[in-house]
Design brief:
single chain, alpha/beta, Rossmann fold, 5-stranded parallel β-sheet, disordered C terminus
Length: about 450
């Protein structure tokens, strides 16, 4: 940990972590552990860059770091020159659903489009600009017409579902770009984003007879993956979090329809039908394993997502579609606290608010209050530590020791009622089986 951290970046990361959400930037300051899982994602990204496809199901308890891991995968993808999209599923945004629910998911994904130059999102228009500009450069060098060059480069997309209208819309974008018609270029980008709700609107604005709707949204993502490759990027990575919202659907038929869409995406990846396209799904163990409402309730998915029968607790197979987030070790948690302390001090060791003894003391306190949840679901541990630093910053005369007993640490059980499983901890925070981690922490040395 070297170098000063900009105040704006420091404040954004600290505010997000204290609120219990994942910051959109600055993840490198707090990333610890899970090297094997990161290597697995890197292998997926390499496969996407090489023209293949990938699907990962990142499975972990609430608060275990699924969302953080998805954001980390997105950040790595941006560094490898992929285009990324990332949204959460909601009751109004599904993989399959009438009333515009699936189209709403597609529209949210395209709005979140990010590149390394525009990591905050909204990069779809700039990607189209890049493609058109590159096509014009090629046309000048070969002495051909700009529109002819664009159509020839998009010709391979004609064979795909919706590819012809996709090429037509980009041709309209070129016409607007060439004539200075901002309305025409805006309409073309709106069509690509899935913002037209009727075919009549699209026909009047662009002369095409199709739009992105609830039935073809995935086909358009496949087209976009191939298009971003033509625009000079390595591929497209799509991160979908809160997949548990599909598990919560009350209608058995609606769940089955959404799981059919998951199966289609998985089959396209396994069979090589998709190119330069990757999906990362974030969900809980119940979403995956529940044989009544989870993915395993759908026999075809249960077969494809079954674990390696030879794998054990010590032999973990990370080559399959399911990637389980393992627990952070006590050593990982100590490193995480040192990183948080360094971040809070804006990278200045002279400004540390607590000594190393406070870190081990805080971990002991977390163990006594949360049991094994302090490292199994570290969200509450991180939030509590930042709350401690916030008080010490505002009241310099306070000592860290007496404050520990006044911090309210409660195990992060958000959404635990979904599974109907009993709480594995007692009211005092200890595990139900009476086990403690004090011995492990007692043996821990700096």
């Amino acid at each position: 940990m070297t170098g000063r951290i900009r105040p704006r970046e420091r404040d954004a990361v600290v505010a997000a972590l204290r609120a219990g959400v994942v910051p959109r930037s600055g993840l490198q300051h707090v990333q610890v552990g899970r090297a094997a899982e990161v290597r697995a994602v890197l292998a997926d990204l390499t496969r996407i860059c090489d023209g293949g496809a990938s699907v990962r199901f990142v499975i972990g308890e609430f608060g275990s770091g699924k969302t953080f891991f998805l954001h980390l995968a997105r950040s790595i993808a941006l560094e490898k020159r992929l285009v990324t999209m990332q949204v959460d599923l909601t009751p109004d945004r599904r993989l399959h659903g009438g009333g515009g629910r699936a189209r709403a998911l597609y529209a949210a994904l395209t709005r979140s489009t990010a590149t390394r130059a525009r990591p905050e999102g909204g990069a779809l228009g700039s990607i189209v600009d890049r493609f058109v500009t590159d096509s014009l450069d090629r046309a000048r060098k070969t002495g051909t017409d700009g529109e002819e060059m664009i159509r020839s480069r998009l010709a391979p997309l004609d064979e795909a579902v919706g590819g012809y209208d996709f090429a037509q819309v980009l041709a309209q974008y070129w016409r607007g770009y060439n004539s200075g018609d901002d309305q025409l270029t805006s309409n073309a980008v709106r069509w690509l984003r899935g913002e037209f709700t009727t075919r009549a609107q699209a026909r009047e604005a662009l002369g095409v007879r199709t739009i992105v709707d609830d039935t073809n949204w995935y086909d358009h993502l496949v087209l976009l993956a191939r298009f971003v490759r033509l625009a000079g990027f390595e591929g497209l990575l799509i991160c979908l979090d809160e997949m548990v919202n599909l598990y919560k659907l009350s209608s058995t038929r609606a769940r089955a329809s959404n799981y059919e869409q998951v199966l289609r995406i998985l089959n396209d990846s396994l069979q090589g039908s998709a190119e330069h396209l990757g999906f990362v799904f974030g969900g809980t163990p119940e979403f995956l394993l529940d044989t009544r409402r989870g993915l395993f309730s759908y026999p075809a998915l249960a077969t494809r997502l079954a674990e390696n029968s030879f794998a054990t607790d010590h032999l973990v197979d990370r080559s399959g579609p399911v990637l389980r987030l393992g627990n952070l070790s006590p050593e990982d948690m100590f490193v995480l606290l040192t990183r948080l302390r360094h971040l809070y001090a804006s990278g200045d060791p002279e400004a540390y608010l607590v000594p190393d003894e406070a870190l081990t003391g805080y971990l002991q306190y977390c163990s006594s209050r949360l049991g094994d949840a302090w490292f199994r679901t570290p969200r509450a541990t991180v939030k509590g530590f930042l709350d401690l630093l916030a008080l010490l910053e505002q009241y310099p005369d306070l000592e860290w020791g007496p404050l520990l007993g006044r911090i309210d640490l409660t195990e992060d059980r958000t959404g635990s009622d979904v599974s109907g499983e009993p709480d594995p901890t007692r009211s005092d925070g200890s595990p139900a089986d009476g086990s403690r981690l004090d011995d492990e922490l007692t043996a821990f040395r700096l």
